[in-house]
């Protein structure tokens, strides 16, 4: 039982830190540029903003797009949680399990925003059919490396004014780090089975 508590506890820790930072930002900072706090010069700032969609601000276009997105996040959370339980039970690589724990914590952290913040923080879009499941994710970490207009021919982000990198939160960072470690060390986490070398020797008797 302790092995499950350890890794699910890591996910819970990510959730608690993520939500604590979001609450501090919401209640202690002004929204947008007026409340911006410089951390390292002009290139790293705390900047309170909200994201109604997915990563990089992408949204589903229909009236119920946000509801569909939140429902998908809820299903994904259940799937990741079950997968974490499975790999713990099967004693997979501890670092890999840690990464999945971080991904689960980050997924739940942003899910909390989507499900509850429309009510708790009253930040659902003005045209939301209902505030439940329509909350916007709170973001605050801003690496201001570049900003400008992206040409129309660029897929997904073309025709918009954007910044590099997008503003993110603790949950996003936890997911990113978890996925990055898995990609970098995937050969160690998922080693290919060694091919058995069959060698046949023939003994030749010389009489």
Description:
This protein is α+β, with helices and mostly antiparallel strands. The protein has one domain. Helices cover 47% and strands 13% of the residues. It contains five helices and five strands. It has helices at 2-28, 65-89, 94-120, 170-184, 186-189; strands at residues 37-40, 44-51, 137-143, 146-149, 161-164. The chain has a three-stranded antiparallel sheet. Strands 4-5 form a two-stranded antiparallel ribbon. Helix 1 (2-28) packs antiparallel against helix 2, helix 1 (2-28) packs parallel to helix 3 and helix 3 runs antiparallel to helix 4. The longest helix has 27 residues, at 2-28. 25% of the residues are buried.
Gist?
It is built from 5 helices and 5 strands, in the order H-E-E-H-H-E-E-E-H-H.
Give a quick set of tags describing it.
207 residues; alpha+beta; 3-stranded antiparallel sheet; two-stranded antiparallel ribbon
Largest sheet: 3 strands, antiparallel
Strand content: 5-15%
- Please tally the helical runs, counting DSSP H or I stretches of 4 or more residues: 5
SSE succession: HEEHHEEEHH
Rounded to the nearest angstrom, the radius of gyration is 23 Å
State the helical fraction: 40-55%
Enumerate the strands of the largest sheet in spatial order, edge to edge or round the barrel: 1-2-3
Tally of strands? 5
Uncertain runs are 197-204
What is the arithmetic mean of pLDDT? 86
Number of domains: 1
The computed structural class is alpha+beta
- What general outline do the C-alpha atoms trace? globular
Q: Ends: how far apart?
A: 68 Å
The quaternary structure here is single chain
């Amino acid at each position: 039982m302790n092995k499950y508590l350890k890794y699910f506890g890591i996910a819970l820790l990510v959730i608690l830190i993520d939500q604590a930072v979001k609450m501090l930002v919401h209640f202690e900072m002004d929204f947008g540029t007026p409340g911006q706090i410089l951390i390292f010069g002009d290139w790293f700032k705390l900047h309170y903003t909200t994201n109604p969609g997915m990563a990089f601000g992408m949204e589903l276009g229909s009236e119920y797009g946000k509801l569909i997105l939140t429902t998908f996040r809820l299903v994904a959370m259940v799937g990741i949680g079950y997968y974490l339980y499975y790999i713990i039970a099967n004693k997979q690589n501890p670092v890999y399990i840690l990464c999945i724990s971080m991904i689960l914590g980050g997924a739940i952290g942003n899910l909390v925003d989507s499900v509850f913040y429309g009510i708790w923080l009253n930040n659902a879009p003005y045209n939301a059919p209902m505030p439940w499941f329509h909350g916007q994710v709170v973001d605050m970490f801003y690496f201001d490396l570049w900003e400008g207009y992206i040409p129309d021919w660029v897929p997904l982000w073309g025709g918009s004014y954007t910044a590099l990198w997008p503003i993110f939160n603790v949950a996003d960072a936890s997911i990113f780090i978890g996925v990055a470690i898995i990609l970098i060390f995937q050969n160690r986490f998922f080693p290919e089975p060694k091919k058995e070398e069959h060698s046949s020797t023939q003994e030749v008797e010389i009489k």
